[in-house]
């Protein structure tokens, strides 16, 4: 890091022309009897990496604060972090390959699938699930800050008649699939193992939430929690930012941190020991996610690819979603974030279809082989290239601009020797919960409406009738995941019956 470390003047807000200055040492020690200087070995280590500014306020610290700072710094793998900063900084401004749209002919589209294919994939998927070959990987490191809650986002209820949280909806879908898999295999099955990635900010609360709710009917030993890592936030010249005089500013390493977390926690080996060969990976904030979808799994196995992703068509050109693209003509698939797209690209039309050229949205619904996950975990760590997210960072000088270092789950696709894209309908499988009610999109209200509308269609298709105390667009019925996964098993319950919405169908 030495070439990145530039000493600069300090302005009144603590930001200089070359970066963020951590602070100036006080003349006297605040802690009587405390060590006059930091441990020599530690001073030499941080100096080797150009990060000796972490001790700039040492003389102002109490004995306890000094001890905390020493432990905080010793916990860092400085060589790895230095490599990440160097590689990530160097990657900025490097010319990227020409971006090409994904041809529609290379996507499995909803309207082109036959009933025979769907039935075959469903059966193949259930068989693999019953034999314990599928593991489920949940990305759940975020808090519901934008939803007005400091709790883990999975604890959030979108206001369904049942009041169920996102965690409960997903757990009950796993229970339903287990039941269907057992029925398809003479009532024998291996429980689906659920790997849940938390963060240091959500881990304890997530574990307690599951414990207090009895794991929502799952066996406790079929759920494994593990934490994603964090990385120090850095200034524009690569120096660590101090949140307080004795604590580094840190941030989670992005949902792509799941790969290094799986590797460091030896959960890839755990999956292999359990006989898991395929991993269904998704984000917690989708109220309509089909967890452990047998059709998607069967399609994945049938294609024999290393990775796959469910995609939906962009709703409109300016929709804030990343899209799948080819990096160079015939190059690997990758996800281009909406913020990285030239505005003109979002408007380009495929003259043959009349649709958007760049239309296949990434909605964080992925399938990987275990062999490929191992490859990605080693490849991403070796390359050490992270995305630089410019953010306001809490620091000893107040909030100041700096970089958070993140990897994304979709970074894996550029490593894949073969990727399949599988179109789904957003009204059936994509109800994101990202913003508080009152926002223009992706709110609890909009997600709830999508769930109730879908379930109302299931009830009507099964021969049921609905009455409403308020207009249909504002309400509907909720079908418990324990009763039905995709609308099956409802005729005996619904045919000829009238349901007064809003309500939950639980039997």
Automatic annotation (TrEMBL):
GO MF term set: UDP-N-acetylgalactosamine diphosphorylase activity; UDP-N-acetylglucosamine diphosphorylase activity
Gene3D superfamilies: Spore Coat Polysaccharide Biosynthesis Protein SpsA, Chain A (3.90.550.10)
Protein name: UDP-N-acetylglucosamine diphosphorylase 1
Pathway linked to the protein: Nucleotide-sugar biosynthesis; UDP-N-acetyl-alpha-D-glucosamine biosynthesis; UDP-N-acetyl-alpha-D-glucosamine from N-acetyl-alpha-D-glucosamine 1-phosphate: step 1/1
Family: Belongs to the UDPGP type 1 family.
Catalytic activities: N-acetyl-alpha-D-galactosamine 1-phosphate + UTP + H(+) = UDP-N-acetyl-alpha-D-galactosamine + diphosphate; N-acetyl-alpha-D-glucosamine 1-phosphate + UTP + H(+) = UDP-N-acetyl-alpha-D-glucosamine + diphosphate
Record InterPro entries: Nucleotide-diphossugar_trans, UDP-sugar_pyrophosphorylase, UDPGP_fam
Family annotation (CDD domains): UDPGlcNAc_PPase
Biological-process GO terms, alphabetical: embryo development ending in seed dormancy; embryo sac development; pollen development; UDP-N-acetylgalactosamine metabolic process; UDP-N-acetylglucosamine biosynthetic process
Species this protein is from: Acorus calamus
Annotated keywords: Nucleotidyltransferase, Transferase
Pfam families associated with the record: UDPGP (PF01704)
Record carries keyword Acetylation: no
The UniProt record lists the keyword Nucleotidyltransferase: yes
